[in-house]
Amino acid sequence: MKNIYSDLNPEQRKAVENVNGPMMVIAGAGSGKTRVLTYRIAHLLNTGIDPFRILALTFTNKAAREMKKRILSIVGESEAMNVWMGTFHSIFARILRIESELLAFTSNFTIYDTNDSKNLIKKIIKEQELDIKIYTPSYVLNRISSAKINLISAQEYSKNSELTNADKMSGKPKVAQLYVLYQNRCKKANAMDFDDLLINTNILLRDFPEILLKYQKRFKYILIDEYQDTNYVQYMIIKKLAAREENICVVGDDAQSIYAFRGANIQNILNFKSDYPDLKIFKMEQNYRSTKNIVNAANSIISNNKDQITKKIWTENDQGGKIKLLKSSTDNEEGRLVANSIFENKMNHQLHENNFVILYRTNAQSRAFEESLRKLNIPYKIYGGLSFYSRKEIKDLLAYFRLVINHNDEEALSRVINYPARGIGNTTLEKITVAASQANISQWEILENISNYQLNISPVTRNKISNFITMLKSFAVSLKKKNAYELAKQIAMSSGIIKELYEDDSPEGLNRYDNVEELLNAIKDFSENENNEVVLVEGEKAENSIRTLDEFIQDIALLTDADKNLDKNTNHVSLMTIHAAKGLEFPFVYIVGMEENLFPSIQSVGTRTELEEERRLFYVALTRAKKQAIISYAETRYRWGNLSITEPSRFIQEIDPKYIEQPKIVSKQNKEVFYNNNYTKKTQKSQKFSQATFSKFQNKNLKKISNLNTPKNDDIFETSPSEELQSGMEVEHKRFGVGKIINIEGTGPNTKATVFFQNVGQKMLLLKFAKLKIIKR
DNA sequence: ACCGTATTCAGCGCG
DNA sequence: TGAATACGGT
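^ Those are the sequences you sent over. The predicted structure of the assembly is below.
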C-alpha cells in the first residue's frame, strides 16, 4: 500500500485518521472531498478492519465507481472489492433480495424505473375512469413519491387529513386511492419502484429486530457521501444502521445542496450534531481547484444565505482573472457571443475544447449554443439526453428478459405481449387485466390458466396466448442453464424482435437494429468476463458458475446514467445543466442565461428556502471553474414561443464587485464580435453577406420587440384575465392547484401575482404565463 | 394497424 | 417555439 498520509493537509489527515465515533466532514467545493473519503477507507483497511465491515454509500453510480477505482489503486483489488460500496439504491436492493421473503417478495423482484411507474399509474387512472388531464401521471407519481420519502404508506396517506384535504382543494381527491391501487399492483407484480427500495429497507430494519442487528453488526463502519442530499427515509435507515456502533462518517457540503426539490432535506446535515452529541466535525476549507477570484466571488454569493454552516473557503492558488460578464440583446446573440468567446480563448491560450463548459439552468437553453458552436466548427457534446437504456428497442428487449425472470412483471408483460405483433391486442389485454384485478392475482396467472376462466376471448386468441406463454416458459427453463448471452440471443431471435428490426430498413430501423446488437454485445461481454463487477455477498461465493441473465438485469436495473460519464476521449465543449455539472470541474466555465425568472427560476423566487437553493445552485456553477468564469445574460429571450424582455439576475449584483469585471457599453462590441466571427471563417464577400443578415436579424427582432410593447396588441392579455384578478380571490393553477391571491404587482406583461396554494405553499407567478382560473371572487 | 394533424405543455432529475 | 402525445380518418 502506498503512503497515503503524505498527500493530505493537516485537516484532511485528521479526518482520515479519526476511526471511531460519529463524525462529519464539511467539505467545501474543491477541497478534496473524494480524496478524504477514499483515503479514510484505505486507512480503515490499514488498521486491520475487515472490508466486509465497511459500508460506503453514494448517490450516483459514477461516484461509487470513481471511489472504487481510487481505493483499488491504493489498497489493491482483493481488499477493495469486498467493501460494501455503492449507491443507496443498489446496496439496499442487494439487501432486499437477500431478505425479500420477510416482506413477501421473492428475490427476483423487478425494479420499476420511473417510466414503468408512470405507465402503471396511467393505466390505473384510466381504469378508474378519472380524467388523465387532471390526474397527470407525473403529478400523481410525485405525490406518491414524496409521501413515500416521508414514510407515509398508502394507508396512512388515506387517513392523513392534511394530505387528503390538500388533494381535495386541488381538485384531485382520488390521489390517496390511486396510491393504494398503485402499491397493490406493484406488489402483485413482485416489483418495487425506486422509492420502495428505500422504504422497504426501512420497514425491514424497523419491523425485524434480528435483521437490524445482523446489519448493524455487519456494518461496523458507515460512510456517506453527499450527506446534504439525503432525504428523510435515507436518514432513518442510516440512523438505524449506525445506532449500535455509532461509527458513522458523513461527508457533505450544505452550500452545495441543490436537490431539495426532489426531497433532499438540508436539515439532515444542518442538524446532524443534535443526533450525535459526541460528534466530531472536520471542516475542510482549503480549495485546491479555483483561483482566488473565483473562490472569493463564490463566498460573497453564498454569504447571502441564512441557512448555512459557517465556513470560510480559501485558496493558495493564483489570483486569476476577474469574472467576465457578457451581455447580449437576444438569446441567439448570447449563443454567438459565447461561442465566439470560446473560440477566442481557445486560440489565445492554445487550448483544447474540453477546457470549456457551458452551464445553463434549463435544458431548453442549449439550442442557441449548439447552433453557434456548429457554425464555428467547434465540436461540442450535450450531456443529459436520452440514455441508452431508455430507448424503445432496448426497453422492449429488456422487457422480455424481465418477464422471463419475473413472470408477474406487469409492465414488462404489457410491453411485449403484442410486440412483435402476434394478435393479442389491447382489448384482450384489458379483459385479462380486469380478470386479474377481480381475482386479485397477476395477469400472468390468468394467462397461464386461461382455460379456467370464462372470458370473452376467442379460441384463436386463446391459442395465441398459449403460444406466447409456452415461449416464455421455454426461455425461463434456460435461465439458470445458459449463460446470459446465449439466452439473450435466443430470446431476441425467437421472440421475433431481431426479425422485426431487420426488416425495417428505414434509417431509424437500422439504428435500432444496431442498438440491439450493442446490447447483445454488452451481454456477451458480461457473460464472458469473470471480473465484471461480481456481486459478492459475504459467505456467498461465485463458484465458477456461469453468469446468467438475471444477474445481468440486476446489474443494469439501477444503471440509468450509462452515458452520463464525462467523455474524456474526444475533444469537445461540454454543454449541460448546472445540476449535471455537480462534482465536475473545468478551466473555463460559462454560466449562461443569468436572468431574473430563469436563474433564479420563476418558480423559486416566492420563498426564501427555494431562493436559497437557487443561490446554492449558482454557487455550484461558479465553483466548477478552475481558471476563469464567464457569466452571460440576454436582454430578450424566447420562452414558450413568446419574446420576453428580461432583467439581469439578482445573483450578478450579489457578487462582490471586486471580483467581477464591470460591464462595458456592449451593443457596439457585440457587432464587432459578430463580424469577426464570420470574418475569420469566410471571405470578404461573405462578410458583406453577414452584414446583410445581421441587419435583417436586427430588424426582425426590433419588430418583435415593438410588437410586444404595443399595448393594444393582443395575445399577452388574452391568455390570462389579469385585469380581473385581485387579492383575496381564490384561483386555480394547472400544476399548483387551488390557492388564494395574496398580492398583485407590476403592470402589463410584467404583472405578477403572489398566490398561496394549499398544497405547495406560496408562489409568485407571472400572469403572462400562468393560466389562473378564478374560482371565487 | 398506421399515419397525419391537433393539442398540449413547457424546471432542475439520482436511482 | 417545438416536442410529445392523443385523436381521428383511411
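The longest strand of chain A covers residues 625-634. The radius of gyration of chain A is 28 Å.

Shout if you want it in another format.
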